[in-house]
Amino acid sequence: MGIFRTYGxxxxxxxxxxxxxxxxxxxxxxDIHMTNAVAVGILIAIAAFFALDHFVLQWDAPLFVAxxxxxxxxxxxxxx
Length: 80
Description:
By secondary structure, the chain is mainly α. It has a domain at 36-79. The chain contains two helices and two strands.
Protein backbone atom coordinates (compact mmCIF):
# COMPACT_ATOMS: atom_id res chain seq x y z
CA MET A 1 0.00 0.00 0.00
CA GLY A 2 1.30 3.40 -0.90
CA ILE A 3 1.17 6.51 1.19
CA PHE A 4 -0.66 8.58 -1.42
CA ARG A 5 -3.28 6.01 -2.37
CA THR A 6 -6.66 7.22 -1.21
CA TYR A 7 -8.51 3.92 -1.31
CA GLY A 8 -5.57 1.74 -0.30
CA UNK A 9 -6.38 -0.98 -2.78
CA UNK A 10 -4.01 -2.87 -4.99
CA UNK A 11 -4.17 -3.32 -8.72
CA UNK A 12 -4.58 -0.65 -11.37
CA UNK A 13 -6.99 1.51 -9.35
CA UNK A 14 -4.68 3.95 -7.56
CA UNK A 15 -7.31 6.08 -5.93
CA UNK A 16 -8.46 9.52 -6.94
CA UNK A 17 -7.28 10.93 -10.28
CA UNK A 18 -5.64 13.91 -8.54
CA UNK A 19 -3.33 11.67 -6.53
CA UNK A 20 -2.80 8.90 -9.05
CA UNK A 21 0.12 10.66 -10.78
CA UNK A 22 2.44 10.12 -7.81
CA UNK A 23 2.33 7.38 -5.20
CA UNK A 24 4.88 5.52 -3.14
CA UNK A 25 5.48 1.84 -3.79
CA UNK A 26 6.11 -0.52 -0.88
CA UNK A 27 9.76 -0.73 -1.95
CA UNK A 28 10.10 3.02 -1.46
CA UNK A 29 10.37 4.18 -5.06
CA UNK A 30 8.01 6.64 -6.70
CA ASP A 31 5.83 5.94 -9.71
CA ILE A 32 5.59 9.23 -11.60
CA HIS A 33 3.45 9.63 -14.71
CA MET A 34 3.92 12.36 -17.30
CA THR A 35 0.52 13.85 -18.09
CA ASN A 36 -0.38 16.14 -20.96
CA ALA A 37 -0.83 19.07 -18.57
CA VAL A 38 2.67 18.57 -17.14
CA ALA A 39 4.17 18.33 -20.64
CA VAL A 40 2.42 21.51 -21.79
CA GLY A 41 3.53 23.32 -18.62
CA ILE A 42 7.15 22.32 -19.18
CA LEU A 43 6.91 23.40 -22.84
CA ILE A 44 5.49 26.80 -21.87
CA ALA A 45 8.20 27.28 -19.22
CA ILE A 46 10.98 26.48 -21.71
CA ALA A 47 9.47 28.73 -24.39
CA ALA A 48 9.08 31.57 -21.86
CA PHE A 49 12.71 31.15 -20.81
CA PHE A 50 13.95 31.43 -24.39
CA ALA A 51 11.67 34.40 -25.11
CA LEU A 52 12.88 36.20 -21.99
CA ASP A 53 16.46 35.38 -22.85
CA HIS A 54 16.04 36.71 -26.38
CA PHE A 55 14.54 40.03 -25.35
CA VAL A 56 16.48 40.67 -22.12
CA LEU A 57 19.81 38.84 -22.27
CA GLN A 58 20.45 38.79 -26.04
CA TRP A 59 20.94 34.99 -26.13
CA ASP A 60 23.61 34.87 -23.41
CA ALA A 61 21.98 32.15 -21.29
CA PRO A 62 22.07 29.29 -23.84
CA LEU A 63 25.68 30.13 -24.64
CA PHE A 64 26.56 30.07 -20.93
CA VAL A 65 24.79 26.71 -20.47
CA ALA A 66 26.53 25.28 -23.55
CA UNK A 67 29.95 26.33 -22.25
CA UNK A 68 29.25 24.81 -18.84
CA UNK A 69 28.07 21.61 -20.55
CA UNK A 70 31.36 21.40 -22.47
CA UNK A 71 33.24 21.86 -19.18
CA UNK A 72 31.16 19.06 -17.66
CA UNK A 73 31.95 16.77 -20.58
CA UNK A 74 35.66 17.47 -20.23
CA UNK A 75 35.48 16.81 -16.50
CA UNK A 76 33.64 13.52 -17.09
CA UNK A 77 36.19 12.51 -19.76
CA UNK A 78 38.93 12.96 -17.18
CA UNK A 79 37.21 10.51 -14.81
CA UNK A 80 36.64 7.99 -17.59
